[in-house]
Amino acid sequence: ASLVRAYHERVHDHYENPRNVGTLDKNDPNVGTGLVGAPACGDVMRLQIKVDDNGKIVDVKFKTFGCGSAIASSSYASEMVKGMKLDEAKNIRNTDIAKDLCLPPVKLHCSMLAEDAIKSAINDYRKKKSLQARPN
Ligand code: FES
Ligand code: FES
Fold first, then answer.
1. Residues with CB under 6 A from ligand 2
2. How distant is the alpha carbon of residue 123 from its chain centre?
3. Which of 3, 9, 10, 11 to mutate to test ligand 1, by most ligand atoms within 8 A of the CB atom?
4. Ligand 1 center to residue 110 CA distance, Å?
């Protein structure tokens, strides 16, 4: 039972002390920026990843203009993707985030924001890289 409590305390900590809040330089060629909105409530999340030459995510920063569940979801997801390869990060599902954070059904879309923001940041990074690789 104490293990379970320790787990829940860790989860609640993402609400009170969100990790990786901030901004990366969006002009850095190794930074991808995702900006997404939730149609259900109008909340907005920006998530940025910094990727090394091996396709590994080495840094993550986010800013969420939204509810506490969206902030906890992005904090949790940001810790999850740090150190992952892009293809692994792409497979993160909002339902996993929601389950781990015990989000109630009405808050499912808040974790969807985090999944969408990760995908959007990966797409932005890949688009940037393919433009750089294009011969003049
Ligand atoms: Fe607090 Fe599950 S995270 S009850
Ligand atoms: Fe809309 Fe949480 S992101 S209520």
1. 38, 40-41, 43, 66-67, 69-70, 109-110, 113
2. 13
3. 11
4. 16
| CB proximity list for 52: less than 8 A, separation 6 or greater | 30, 58
Please report the pLDDT score of residue 94 as a whole number.
94
Q: How many CA atoms lie within 13 A of 9 on its CB side?
A: 6
- What pTM value is reported for the model? 0.88
Whether ipTM tops 0.85, in short, is no
Domains and CATH numbers, the chain: 2-133 (3.90.1010.10)
Burial of 31 (0-12, 13-18, 19+ CB in 10 A): buried
Q: Where are the beta strands (DSSP E) in 38-102?
A: 44-51, 57-65
Task: Give per-10-residue mean pLDDT for the chain (136 aa).
Answer: 65 86 96 94 96 97 92 94 97 92 89 96 96 73
| Alpha carbon distance 29, 123 (integer Å) | 13
| pLDDT recorded at residue 104 | 86
